[in-house]
Amino acid sequence: MGDAPKKVTAPAIAARKGGERIAMVTAYDAPSASIASAAGIDIILVGDSVANAMLGHDHTLAVDVDIMIHHTAAVARAKPHCLVVGDLPWMSYHISVSEAVRNASRLIREGGAEAVKLEGGANRLPVVEAIINAEIPVMAHIGLTPQSVHAMGGYKVQGRAVVDAKELISDAKALADAGVFSIVLEGVPDTVAQVITKEVGIPTIGIGAGVHCDGQVLVWHDVLGLHDGHYAKFVRKYADLRQQAVDALSQYAADVRNETFPGEDETYHMTDEAAAALFEEEPRDLSWPLSW
Ligand code: KIV
Predict the structure, then answer these.
(1) What are phi and psi of 198, to 5 degrees?
(2) How far, in Å, from the CA of 88 to the mean position of ligand 1?
(3) Residue 208 CB less than 6 A away from ligand 1
(4) Ligand 1 pocket, 114 CB below 6 A?
(5) d(CA 215, CA 47)
């Protein structure tokens, strides 16, 4: 038997800069966390994408800190070797710095997260610094930030124009200087991600940001093909689990209807004597159809 995989920590992720690429997925429950851990995934992000992926919402703005704690705690209970990052939802770090620190601490204390993620650039520096000052590792997230869907006017690739690209580069540097241990780059041209990756001393983790990042992240339901909705251009489906589940459940329904489930091996029995006592007479033929 090989050694159990080592628990991944935020400093260990920071130390991976320029080294072996970092594999991150989202997950929102204990069985998924256990699967991610068994697959050797480095980081589980309990993303606010739980709103779309699990709860049927159209955007991530629908979830609050209590919902994020509920899902983060489920992931943490699986004790994955992966680093567990809890996503700070919209409005949990926008009102005041002290509220942001309190909400980050709830994801750690009540949710069992080992780091938190939040969206935004230089505008979030006071919050980022305060959370780091409370000894909580912070993962940043810039580019296409889904919590800004209304401000951005939709889910649009960011940083295509040079002026916007320069702002993203400057945001990334400021966040790195503030002490975040990694930065998610979402929905940005590969060249912008390449420049940021070269310019900052912490790992970049891309989603729709090309191959030059230090790692990649995909949403659970996308990477496993678990939904029948839209798959973005950057997604690679590594399985078609939705179709496999539909096939399995169709077979189950057919077996129930044609009475081949449950079979003998899937059935509990009484002794014949007990059955006889139950019917208060000689054992009857209990084969189907029953004779009484
Ligand atoms: O919530 C989420 O799934 C995310 C990833 C897309 C990075 O923030």
Answers:
(1) -75, -35
(2) 11
(3) no
(4) no
(5) 17
Angle at which helices 65-77 and 97-109 pack, to 10 degrees? Answer: 30
CA distance 231 to 214: 23
Beta strands in 113-242, from DSSP E residues, in sequence order: 115-119, 138-143, 182-186, 204-207, 215-218
For residue 219, how far is its CA from the centre of ligand 1 (angstroms)? 7
How far is the centre of ligand 1, averaged over its atoms, from the C-alpha of 199 (Å)?
23
Given ligand 1 and candidates 213, 217, 231, which is best to mutate, with the most ligand atoms within 8 Å of its CB? 217
The answer to whether residue 119 is catalytic is no
Q: Is 26 in the pocket of ligand 1 (CB under 6 A)?
A: yes
What are phi and psi for residue 148, nearest 5 degrees? -100, 25
Give the number of other CB atoms < 10 A from CB of residue 194.
Answer: 17
Count of CB atoms within 10 A of residue 243's CB? 12
What averages of pLDDT result for each successive group of 10 residues across the chain (292 residues)?
Answer: 82 98 98 98 98 97 98 98 98 98 98 98 98 99 98 97 98 98 98 98 98 98 97 98 98 98 97 90 58 51
Q: How many helices (H) and strands (E) does the chain have?
A: 12, 8
Q: Of these residues, 20, 110, 167, 186, which one is catalytic? A: 186
Which CATH number applies to 10-223?
3.20.20.60
Domain boundaries, the chain: 10-223
Give the single-character DSSP code of 47.
-
Which pTM was predicted? Answer: 0.94
Q: Which protein residue has the closest C-alpha to ligand 1 atom 8? A: 47
